[in-house]
Every structure is written in C-alpha cells, then in structure tokens.
Amino acid sequence: MRTLFTIFITALFAFVACTGGSTKQAPKKDVAEQGITIPSFNGDSAYKFVEKQVSFGPRVPNSDAHKACAEWLADKLRSYGAEVTMQRVQLTAYTGTKLDACNIIASFQPQKRKRILLCAHWDSRPWADADPDPANHRKPILGANDGGSGVGVLIEVARLLSLTPSELGIDIVLFDAEDYGTHASEMATTENSWALGSQYWARMPHKENYNARFGILLDIVGAPQSKFLREGISEHYASSIVDKVWKRAAEMGFSSIFINEEGGYVTDDHLYVNEFMGIPCIDIINRDKDSKSGFGPYWHTVKDDMSWISAETLRIVGQTVVAVIYNEK
Length: 329
Ligand code: AHN
Ligand code: ZN
Prior knowledge:
By secondary structure, the protein is an alpha/beta fold. The protein has helices at residues 2-13, 43-55, 64-79, 144-163, 196-203, 232-251, 269-277, 311-326; strands spanning 30-31, 37-38, 83-92, 98-108, 115-121, 169-175, 215-219, 228-230, 258-262, 281-285. The strands form three sheets. The chain has a six-stranded mixed beta sheet with strand order 3-4-6-5-7-10, with helices on both faces. Strands 1-2 form a two-stranded antiparallel ribbon.
C-alpha cells in the first residue's frame, strides 16, 4: 500500500529525460513468427485521421464539436466492421460541472474470448493552462497531439483490422474526459480529477466481466522527434508488456525512438485499467525533459495543432502496435 501511495505521489511530480536519435525505415511488410503477415501501417492515413478530429475544433465535453466528433468516430469505426458501443454517462468534473461524456468502444471479432485492449483519449482539454500567454489560460486546446494523435493511430489500426483480421479479438476504447483535470491555477490538485472516462469504464465496463490479455494506451504520440521511455506506472503493473512492446519496436528498427530506459510516472488512463480492472496496461507517451511542463512546449497550450504532428512518428508508433497485436496467438 505504501509503495502504491508513493507511486501516485511520485506520478504527480515526476518528469523524465529523453535522448536524441534517428529514425529507421521499417520494411513495408514484415513477417511475424509462424508466417503471419503484418499489415503495413500508413502514417499519412493516421495523419489525416488526426487532422479530421482537429477540424471539429476543441473536443471539450458538452461542446458541439465534441458531439460531432463522437459521431464521426463511431461511424468511422463501424465502417471498418467493428461492433461499436457508445457508453454515454454523465460525469462530474472537479469543478462540479456535469459532463455529458461518452466512451467509444469498437470491438473487432467480439465473439473471441482472447482479447487485446488498445486505448487513447478522444476529448481535448478545456483550458490552455500551460500556455506562455496568461490570456489563453481559459481557452480550450485543439489537442492535435494531446488526444488526437493516439486516436488517429487507432483509427488506422481499425482500418487495417478491417482488411486483415487478427488472431485475437481487439477492443479499441476511446476514453472521454481524460483532460478535464485540475486547472494549473488551483492551489492543490484534486485527486483523481483526470481520466474520468477511464475511471468510469474500468469500474463499469461495456461488457460484464470484460477481460483482455493486456492493454496499450497511446497518448501524445505524434510529435516530430518523439522518444518513448518506459513509463513508471506501466513498469510497475505491466513490465512484461513494456518488454514485449519495446522489444518488438527494436526488432523493427525503432530502438532509437522506443528507448529502453526508465521514464517518469504519468497519471493517465492506464492507471485505472491496471488498478480497477487488473488488466496489465502500459502507456506509450512522449515526454520532454527540456520543457517546463515535462511534456513538449505545445502541451496544454493553444499551439497543440497539426504543426506538431508528424506522419512518421505516427507510423513508428502504429507499426509497432500493429506488429505486437498481429503476433499474439
Ligand atoms: C497529468 O498531467 C496529471 N497527467 C498527464 C495526463 C495527460 C494529460 N495526458 C494528456 N493530458
Ligand atoms: Zn492533456
């Protein structure tokens, strides 16, 4: 219990280092063990899916853009053959504001018992409270990278699943209300104010006794020159899954992007999947030791737009996830 408490406290304050490196091209098609063909992840396609989300404007809960984007996401996932559940729920933000939230769950081959969970948050932050200009601190963010990037990658994964079914069933869960956490101007951070959608789903999954072999959360995975380190909560609950993913990335030539070093702790959606559901779930998230926030300079600012999205970074993350899921049997 003491250890966990320490982790949560550390998670609030810890920041990580990241190091330089270069990108290598992965082969167009890769053959997995036992002759399975791994589909080729298209970074430009994922980029367009990020752009589409951003075109709605900030996807802040209770806004029209939020409603419109939810419909688009659900339609898109259905068009790729998924069984889509709109888990609508009213959540209460730390401000007391009631949020009409919706977790969007896309199940591929829902009849299969062996499953993998892939997740990201699709909402964007209501306040650019890390913006250098205080005049922006109450303005919403576009969330191209913070939110949009992970979802963009997962929509592309859905497209590939529609063309080449995987051996295991896949659930893509897009969490709402991740980024409604305590405003930076508040004196104390309210406990569990972040990740409201995942907290709800992890207690009330869309299917009774939902289970998955493991989960992968994608958050802030679009910036050029991104590096991904082994995040602390992931390491604590699911180090074998971190190993699995980082090894697969190295095999594909991405060892300078997926760096085999300890990162800091991030309180993110995966915490509740681990804690409440007991599904080992990791977070692939980019940190930046050189910026004040510990994330990139665009993070929680009005500059989190398409200029911070690289199709190549999306491809590296997406191709790694695809290689991991198609190799499971
Ligand atoms: C905190 O800042 C406490 N957690 C980072 C989780 C996050 C926010 N991911 C995206 N936006
Ligand atoms: Zn955020």
